[in-house]
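Design request, tokens follow.
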């Protein structure tokens, strides 16, 4: 099974001007972009107060400007962008 990116690349090879599918291709591109995780800007990392000082959550900002929390969201609740909280 192809990944969304591979499917989009395959569609880009077709002649969509002839098929009048340019708008649908643009929508598909937007969906692939939203499903591809980005790293949010980390604003704050909150750790457990006692040893072993485990990371509890991170507070970050999505590209759209929305504040997001790693403990609750693997996507932005405002714009739907997938988020990657790893280092």
């Amino acid at each position: 099974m192809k990944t969304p990116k591979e499917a989009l690349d395959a569609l880009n090879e077709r002649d969509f001007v002839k098929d009048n599918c340019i708008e649908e291709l643009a929508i598909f591109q937007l969906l692939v972009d939203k499903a591809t995780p980005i790293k949010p800007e980390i604003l704050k990392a909150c750790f457990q107060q006692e040893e072993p000082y485990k990371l509890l959550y991170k507070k970050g900002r999505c590209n759209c400007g929305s504040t997001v929390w790693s403990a609750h969201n693997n996507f932005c609740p405002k714009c739907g962008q997938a988020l990657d909280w790893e280092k």
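Comment from the thread starter after seeing the answer: thanks! The chain has three helices and three strands.
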